[in-house]
């Protein structure tokens, strides 16, 4: 009987991971929370690899309002919605700073659909975490995704036009002559290196110092 139960548990967990490749990361966060649950009312960072790979996060947030990072690499806004209860509601944050949209565009999703998913995320946040404020971090450019830069700009414009909290993470990575910086990425030409994260962090720090008390 025990062997049957174990086999069933393995089957369920394997299928769950197959359905959503981020389940392992989420379980890791849940284990971390079981040891030290973040206090309510903090600033929650949720999003894809630009957050997950932010190695200097703790140092960059040291002088900022209390914040914690729950980025899971490769995620989309649809994934953030899928894990909404487990990665947003349970923390009861005062602010949610989101970085999603870039991977969504790279996988062929239109800016309009992503903007609609953003609206759904915001509606659920307003309902399930009353008083929480949502901040959209604009899709940033990269050498690996120059082919979708117009889509990034379109998405960013759609979200910004809603009049919600918005952090420009697109224009800061361009030189005065309009060309994208070449020395801010790691070898894959997609993710930021230390120099890139200095720019990335400053944009967010400036926002937090202005709006988050």
UniProtKB/TrEMBL annotation:
InterPro entries assigned to the protein according to its UniProt record, in alphabetical order: Ester_Hydrolysis_Enzymes (IPR051532), SGNH_hydro (IPR013830), SGNH_hydro_sf (IPR036514)
Domain SGNH hydrolase-type esterase: start-end pairs: 65-197
Coiled coil ranges: none
Signal peptide feature range: 1-18
Keywords assigned: Signal
Protein's name according to its UniProt entry: GDSL-type esterase/lipase family protein
Originating organism: Aquirufa echingensis
